[in-house]
Automatic annotation (TrEMBL):
Family: Belongs to the lipoxygenase family.
CDD domains: PLAT_LOX (cd01753)
The EC number(s) this enzyme carries: 1.13.11.34
Residues the record marks as site: Essential for stabilizing binding to COTL1: W103
UniProt-listed InterPro entries: LipOase, LipOase_C, LipOase_C_sf, LipOase_CS, LipOase_Fe_BS, LipOase_mml, PLAT/LH2_dom, PLAT/LH2_dom_sf
UniProt cofactor note: Binds 1 Fe cation per subunit.
Catalytic EC class: oxidoreductase
Pathway given in the UniProt record: Lipid metabolism; leukotriene A4 biosynthesis
The protein, known as: Polyunsaturated fatty acid 5-lipoxygenase
Length: 674
């Protein structure tokens, strides 16, 4: 009688093993086997991290094995089991791999296909077509769209983390409990004694060191020592944790009536302001998005304020970016003066602090939350709903949506919900952050997620004219490496544009993103369908780059740049000044966050800047969803290209007082998971 050797690999994460009964059935082209109990006498099967082998003898020839069916039945208490893969050695000596990388819960069952990636047109056998269809029908019931707030991209229909499908939950929910992590952060930073001191102001700038001295590192310490300098202020728009707003000023806006006379002491080329604009030396950051956003009113004991500044910057003869004019609100007038470097020291300093605070709000809510977390969740939900596990695009993308839906669900549960942690320290808490996302959705476009296009649209693409923009330089290297990789994968499975057009599952995935994620907004420019291999490669590059590199660029620098509170105040406790010559240092300190809010802010930026335990970085694919040699070779080339980029960035950073490493591939996690 034919005999098969079945090798079963159990996951190595916590609680991956099981004591339940595990049964296996084989489905072949000419017959099906009986159900076989996988059990060895006097042996603890399916322990965490174990690889167990079993001999399975069948009564008759089964032909070519098409499916493997695994059933789990209760032994004593229900426990979930994480099955990595099954390998089958046939009577002929051939090996067939069946990747799984999923949890089997309760008295569940799972049906696996072999690991070869297949488009729907490749499946001609009825049983395989049926398996493909049933998998998507099941997933579409599990992964449902939900509107969390009007105008937001749709998200997963789950009130809390435990409501999610088991396959996309964190291995340990405790590890991503925001309340626990923030409290732990404050304890680790020795600042928990200040955490309840709301309404208690710091004495002066030096007083902020009481919550800083224990946690200094190269960048944050340098920020503390140089934050008041114009050069440090300008540098952050290029290489801080929100390097996505600055743009070349092609025309001075009428709402900022700045003249040559106002700024001539800052201009170094003996040109008028208009001539400097024409030569491409003037840059602008406009926080118009914040205009009219409601400030946080959740604490009746503390008034909180927002501004919507416009900041004009100048590229000096040393090619350094310096601020030359700041207007703190959008409508010019006598009570909205233009602050200048030539003004009194504290007038100018407070104007810059208002810009830094505004930058913090846009960074957290738009650059970080909306444009990486929420967008990546949309791609993830659409992928699970429309692409079966055997589809090559599913196999490619699954690593890049790992834990994204889970972290966002946890954020909606604890962080950005009503009375959540976001309300504790942020001036945009209490609903302002919701208004910001609703407003920013009007400007979220597909091309703005295409990194080279986004850089070009802001006029920041010329490396000779605008040197030292490391976010741009490193981002382009990583984008090109990802695009080269996705192009190779697309070319392996799609021999022509026609095959792309005819792949209905792929088209349904793209349509789901457009209709539900982008709410069917034509102006978003998101494609409703994809018709060429080139466009498919670009689309996949957007998905992977957004989840990995873009998130890394705006997330992991938060502690470096925001831990010195005056450099990134999460709230302001007095309104913007309406006149010059009246600002004192005492007034600035009373405007900055109180001790309690400073501590919650510091705990947040520390916790958000940490990598996950067992983090998987860009190019790491330990789950072998692909088994074909051409794709594995493409992955190896991708890793080699990324290693080269790591070396280039490391060489560039040598001896730099402010190294830029957020886009070094060895520091870019595969997915949005924090």
């Amino acid at each position: 009688m034919p005999s098969y050797t079945v090798t079963v690999a159990t996951g190595s994460q916590w609680f991956a093993g099981t004591d339940d009964y595990i049964y296996l059935s084989l489905v072949g082209s000419v017959g099906c086997s009986e159900k076989h109990l996988l059990d060895k006498p006097f042996y603890n099967d399916f322990e965490r991290g174990a690889v167990d082998s079993y001999d399975v003898t069948v009564d008759e020839e089964l032909g070519e094995i098409q499916l493997v069916k695994i059933e789990k039945r209760k032994y004593w208490l229900h426990d979930d089991w994480y099955l990595k893969y099954i390998t089958l050695k046939t009577p002929c000596g051939d090996y067939i791999e069946f990747p799984c990388y999923r949890w089997i819960t309760g008295e569940g069952e799972i049906i696996l296909r072999d690991g070869r990636a297949k488009l729907s047109r490749d499946d001609q056998i009825h049983i395989l077509k049926q398996h493909r269809r049933k998998e998507l029908e099941t997933r579409q019931k599990q992964y449902r769209w939900m509107e969390w707030n009007p105008g937001f991209p749709l998200s997963i229909d789950a009130k809390c983390h435990k409501d999610l499908p088991r396959d996309i939950q964190f291995d340990s929910e405790k590890g991503v409990d925001f309340v626990l992590n923030y409290s732990k952060a404050m304890e680790n930073l020795f600042i928990n004694c200040f955490m309840h001191m709301f309404q208690s102001s710091w004495s002066d700038f030096a007083d902020f060191e009481k919550i800083f001295v224990k946690i200094s590192n190269t960048i944050s310490e340098r920020v503390m020592n140089h934050w008041q300098e114009d050069l440090m202020f300008g540098y952050q728009f290029l290489n801080g944790c929100n390097p996505v707003l600055i743009q070349q000023c092609r025309k001075l806006p009428e709402k900022l009536p700045v003249t040559t006379e106002m700024v001539e002491c800052s201009l170094e080329r003996q040109l008028t302001l208009q001539e400097e604009v024409e030569q491409g030396n003037i840059f602008i950051v406009d926080f118009e998005l914040l205009d009219g956003i409601d400030a946080n009113k959740t604490d009746p004991c503390t008034l909180q304020f927002l501004a919507a500044p416009i900041c004009l910057l100048y590229k000096n003869l040393d090619n350094k970016m310096i601020p030359i004019a700041i207007q703190l609100n959008q409508v010019p007038g006598d009570e909205n003066p233009i602050f200048l470097p030539s003004d009194a020291k504290y007038d100018w300093l407070l104007a810059k602090i208002w810009v830094r605070s505004s930058d913090f709000h846009v960074h957290q809510t738009i650059s970080h939350l909306l444009r990486t977390h929420l967008v990546s969740e949309v791609f993830g939900i659409a992928m699970y709903r429309q692409l079966p596990a055997v589809h090559p695009i599913f196999k490619l993308l699954v690593a890049h949506v790992r834990f994204t839906i889970a972290i966002n669900t946890k954020a909606r549960e604890q962080l950005i919900c009503e009375y959540g942690l976001f309300d504790k320290a942020n001036a945009t808490g209490g609903g302002g952050h919701v208004q910001m996302v609703q407003r920013a959705m009007q400007e979220l476009t597909y091309t703005s997620l295409c990194f080279p296009e986004a850089i070009k649209a802001r006029g920041m693409d010329n490396k000779e004219d605008i040197p030292n923009y490391f976010y741009r330089d490193d981002g382009l290297l990583v984008w090109e490496a990802i695009q080269k990789f996705t192009t190779e994968v697309v070319d392996i499975y799609y021999e022509s544009d026609q095959v792309v057009k005819e792949d209905q599952e792929l088209q349904d995935f793209v349509k789901d993103v457009y209709v539900y994620g982008m709410r069917g907004k034509k102006a978003s420019g998101f494609p409703k369908s994809i018709k060429t291999r080139e466009k498919l490669s670009e689309y996949l590059t957007v998905v992977i780059f957004t989840a990995s590199a873009q998130h890394a660029a705006v997330n992991f620098g938060q502690y470096d740049w925001c831990s010195w509170i005056p450099n990134a105040p999460p709230t302001m406790r007095a309104p913007p000044p309406t006149a010059k010559g009246v600002v004192t240092i005492e007034q600035i300190v009373k405007t900055l966050p109180d001790r309690g809010r400073s501590c919650w802010h510091l705990g947040a930026v520390w916790a958000l800047s940490q990598f996950q335990e067992n983090e998987l970085f860009l190019g790491m694919y330990p789950e072998e969803h692909f088994i074909e040699k051409p794709v594995k070779a493409a992955m190896a080339r991708f890793r080699k290209n990324l290693d080269t980029i790591v070396s280039v960035i490391a060489d560039r950073n040598k001896n730099k007082k402010l190294p830029y490493y957020y886009l070094s591939p060895d520091r870019i996690p595969n997915s949005v998971a924090i």
